[in-house]
Amino acid sequence: MLTIFIKALAAAGVLVAFIETTQVAAESTGEVIVEPHKLFKLLVKAVKIGSGRNEEVYSFAHIMLNLDSMPPAMWNNMGYWPIHSRHLNMIPSDFKSACANMANRLSLNANLCTADSLIDVGIGCGDQSLLYAPQVEKYIGITSLTSHSAIASRRLAFQQNAEILTLDASDPVNDWPPSILRRSLVEGQVNKILALDCLYHFTPTREKFLTYVNRTLECAFNKGATEVCFAAEDLVCDDKVSLKNNFLLAAFCLAANAPLQNIFTTKQQYLTLLQRCGFTREKGWSIAIEDISDCVFPGLASFLEYRANINCSSTLSSSTALTSPPAPQPFEINHFLRFERFAAFSKVIRWWADTGIVRSVMITVKKTRN
C-alpha cells in the first residue's frame, strides 16, 4: 500500500541507507535476512527513476519508514495506532509497532490456529508472514513483486511450513498455477485467507478475487473444515462525498494506481459485493465490517508528519522525543533520503482523517460448523 503512494521518493538513497544500516539477524529469528549485494543491483537500476517506471526499484520506498527500527524491518501497511496517537510524541519504532498491531489484529479476527491452512495475499517483504506462518499448519504467502518475493522467501527459509509465491492475486482462477487451484478449489485444503491493506489495488476490481475466496472456503467447509474465514483490511469511501472531494479523490486514485471503482465503494456497496460473490446469510456466512479509521489515519498522518519534519543529522542525536538510543548512523542519511518528501503524503492522510472521505475497515467473513 504505502509503496504505491511514496514510490516517487528517493529510492536510490533509500537502498543505500538500508544497505548501510541493516544488520543481518540470525536465521532462527527471521527478523531481517537481506543480502546487500542483491539490493545493490536494485540501486544500479535506481538511476532510471527520472526517466522511466521501474516498479522493482520503487517498491522499496517503504524502507524509509522502517529505516531506524531496531531490529530492522520492512513493514508496508498503514498500521493500527493508539486512538490518541495524534497527540503523542512519535519515535522511529512507532511505525513498525503499528504495522505489527494491524497484522496481529487481522490474525485475531481470522482466529488463526495450528490446524489452519492459510493463503495470505499482499505480503510485501514478508514481515506479516513471520507472524502468521508459525501460527498455522500450512502457510502460502503471495506478492506480485519479484523483489519482495525474493526477500520474503529468504526470510521465511527456516519456516518449513511456509511457501512464498510471486503471483497477481486480482484474478486467481485465470492467473494462478494449477497446483494452487487444485489445492484450494478441488481438494479443499485452504480454510483461511487474509488480505492486509492490498485489495483496493486489485484490477479491475476486487470481485474476481472475492469470488475465488468464496469458492475456496466453501470447498474447504464441504470437505469437513470446522471453521473457514476470510479477513481483510481495506479502504472504502464515505456515503456522502462532495463534488470537489470526488474530483480530488479521483485524481489521487489515478496517481496511486488504485482503480477508481475500488476506492469509490461505500461500506454498503462492499457488503453487497460480498453477497454477490456468494457470502450470503442463507449459506451460513456471517459478515462483519468494522470501521477502524480513527485508529489508522490520525496516527499514520502524525508519524508521516514526524518523518517529514525530522532532521536526521541533529534530531536523531538530541531529540527529546526519542525514548531509546537511535540506530547507528554511518552518514547523514537525511541528505540522501529527504524525509521532508513525506509532507505531501501526510497531508493526504490527514485529509482522510479530518474529513472521513475515505474509511479504513476490517472485513471478517466466517462460517463455522455447529
Describe this structure in words.
The structure is a single chain. The chain has 370 residues and is an alpha/beta fold. It contains 18 helices and seven strands. It starts with a helix and ends with a strand.
SSE order and pairing:
Elements: H1 2-5, H2 11-21, H3 36-45, H4 55-58, H5 63-66, H6 94-110, E1 117-121, H7 127-132, E2 138-143, H8 146-155, E3 162-166, H9 172-175, H10 178-186, E4 192-196, H11 207-222, E5 227-237, H12 243-255, H13 260-263, H14 267-276, E6 286-291, H15 297-309, H16 312-318, H17 334-337, H18 342-355, E7 358-368
Parallel strand pairs: 1-2, 1-4, 2-3, 4-5
Antiparallel strand pairs: 5-7, 6-7
Helix pairs in contact: 2-3, 15-18
Which value, in Å, is the CA radius of gyration? 20 Å
User: How would you write the strand order of the largest sheet?
Assistant: 3-2-1-4-5-7-6
Distance between the termini: 37 Å
Strand coverage percent: 5-15%
Give the mean pLDDT.
79
Task: Assign an overall shape.
Answer: globular
Low-confidence runs of at least 5 consecutive residues: 6-54, 311-336
Q: What's the oligomerization state?
A: single chain
Question: What structural category characterises the helix and strand content?
Answer: alpha/beta
Helix content: 40-55%
Describe the main β-sheet briefly. Answer: 7 strands, mixed
